[in-house]
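Fold it.
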Amino acid sequence: MANNTSTTRGQSPATAHSQPLAELATLGQSVWLDFITRNMIHNGELHKLIQEDGVRGVTSNPSIFEQAISAGDAYDQQLRTLAEQAFGGPELFEALAVQDIQGACDLFLPLYESTGGQDGFVSIEVSPGQAYDTEATLIEARRLWQAVDRPNVMVKVPGTPEGLPAIEQLLSEGLNINITLLFSIDRHEEVMWAYIRALEARQVADESLDNIASVASFFVSRVDTLVDRLLEEQIRAETHPATQEKLRGLLGKAAIANAKLAYARFQEIFGGERFEQLQAAGARVQRPLWASTSTKNPEYRDVRYVEELIGPHTVNTMPLATMTAFQDHGAIRRTLDEGLDDAQAVLDALHEVGIDYHAITQQLEQEGVAAFAKSYDSLIAHVEQKAAAMRSR
């Protein structure tokens, strides 16, 4: 049974055990927080996480904002003012979100400046409803970039086939982009080449390369959740003990194997000659960002998606519960380049038992877009209802 440590949103990791997170930076990994609220910006909690717990960035998504706006009255004053101007739901939400992102960017600005633009980023996401619309993604991403107007903002764009040309164009225009909802090694590779092509386009246009930052958000635990469910279905249906044992041996192995092989491909591409020329001109690598790193299965160690994915030029974005658990009992050593042959053997074995890697990762991408879109729609409805109630008073 895993060691499970829980905490609630808004409760910081214990500073008495702050060394583990800080030590990750010595191995080249940055810790980013996976949510944001207005209260934590204004009450000093986020500043404390930056100064004492080694948090070096923040990501956000519609689910996180819905929870933040629904809880308490921190957004009511601004929402009341906006409601009087008869804005629609999307405009209301964007105004609320932009103010939070600006506040967080300002808190992270000293870190951004002291690291030469390596860290200190805060992400804001384009509407998930635009995930399959290249032109709409371009329009919204540009608008959000201009609205936030901070050098350390990152615009999150889903890495769908339709998102890829938008990502490349936005990067070539000088926007910092966080490519999200990546599940497959192949799609991750497409994203890396899109980044490199964007930098090459900037170089041809005699534009600077040293002020562009990008991360590729590669989702982890969701892979195990789906693959384990399929394996367990096979185990229940299987009557042969040896086959059952083989299937059990694959439980909880897919996600980490997938991430390690993605990182190996990252090392090949960004260690190659094509990027070397860009790096000489000031370009930085597009870091893999491990997303969805909280452990969903209580039978698994609660920090497994941190401990087993530690390596240079990476980001791990964590909820507070995972941060707190890692502060308490996380083991720190470089693990990302270990066991690559074993990782490939896991994917090969999954194929042998009939689990289609490409079908799995495509399903996860589609489900991820759908889940974020559902959260966004729910968020917009909630904001509209709250604004309507304010107008009627």
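The domain at 24-220+287-333+362-391 is CATH 3.20.20.70 (TIM Barrel).
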